[in-house]
Amino acid sequence: MRLTLFSLSLLVFQLMAVPTWSLEASMDIEIEDAKIRRMHDELGIPANYAEQSGLPAQAPPLSLVSVGKDMYGREQRLAPQAADAWRQMQEAAKRDGMIVLLVSAFRPPELQASLLQRKLDRGESIEQALRAVAAPGHSEHQSGHAIDVSCAGCPVLEAEFERTKTFRWLMQHAESFGFSLSYPRDNPHGIMYEPWHWYHTPQDAP
Ligand SMILES: [Zn+2]
User: Fold this and answer.
1) Is residue 206 part of a domain?
2) How far is the centre of ligand 1, averaged over its atoms, from the C-alpha of 193 (Å)?
3) Please, which of 1, 23, 27, 142 could form a disulfide with 58 given CB 3.0 to 4.6 Å?
4) Is residue 36 part of a domain?
5) Could you read off the pLDDT tens digit of each residue along the chain, which spans 206 residues?
6) In this structure, are residues 13 and 19 in contact, taking their beta carbons and an 8 Å threshold?
7) What is the CATH number of the domain that holds 89?
8) Are 113 and 121 contacting, i.e. CB atoms less than 8 angstroms apart?
């Protein structure tokens, strides 16, 4: 009887120490990791990619909210905090006479993989393709905290975007909304200069 009680209390202790939700969460992470590894294998992404690029693995967002349509009329989503910051920044730019347009926001790893595959299909090497598109699992777009932007009549996803009034406004003001330019010229990640790509740094709840 004493032994049974002991076993029972041990079991209760174990159940308390490892809550079911954390088991489920870690299983989800393992499934996600295996999926991303398979995508890397299929695309021929070098095994030392993470180490060489210094681009951390991005956790998928816990939730996503709509931020309306992008400049191509596609529905876009961001993590709630980034969505609020984006709306505030877009409003502030508008007050200063600038319409900032969304080109891309949240992208799941599957879309990231298909963007890379499209480049490979056009004859680029994987090394070339990775200079423009981060590997699945490592793109800031996967976090729901990154946006690609442009403006009406402005170059889209081209370095010349830096010559626009909108880019100069972003360089002056984006930081106050929590956004920063992830890939300036000669960045250590080996990603080409992307004046259109801005990352919202998540803030811990107060
Ligand atoms: Zn981007």
Assistant:
1) no
2) 11
3) 142
4) yes
5) 454 554 545 444 444 444 455 556 666 667 778 999 999 999 999 999 999 999 999 988 999 999 999 999 999 999 999 999 999 999 999 999 999 999 999 999 999 999 999 999 999 999 999 999 999 999 999 999 999 999 999 999 999 999 999 999 999 999 999 999 999 999 999 999 999 999 999 888 65
6) no
7) 3.30.1380.10
8) no
Residue 113 lies in a domain: yes
* Nearby residues of 64 by Cβ (< 8 Å), 6 or more positions away: 77, 78, 79, 80, 106, 144
- Spacing, Cα 21 to ligand 1 middle (Å): 33
How many domains is the chain partitioned into structurally? 1
Helices and strands in the chain: count of H runs, count of E runs: 7, 6
CA of 96 to the centre of ligand 1 (A): 24
The CA 146 to ligand 1 mean position distance, Å, reads: 6
Contact 176, 97 (CB under 8 A): no
77 occurs within a structural domain: yes
Residue 94 identity: K
CA of 205 to the centre of ligand 1 (A): 26
Domain that includes residue 125, residue range: 2-200
Task: Report the C-alpha gap between 115 and 111 in whole angstroms.
Answer: 6
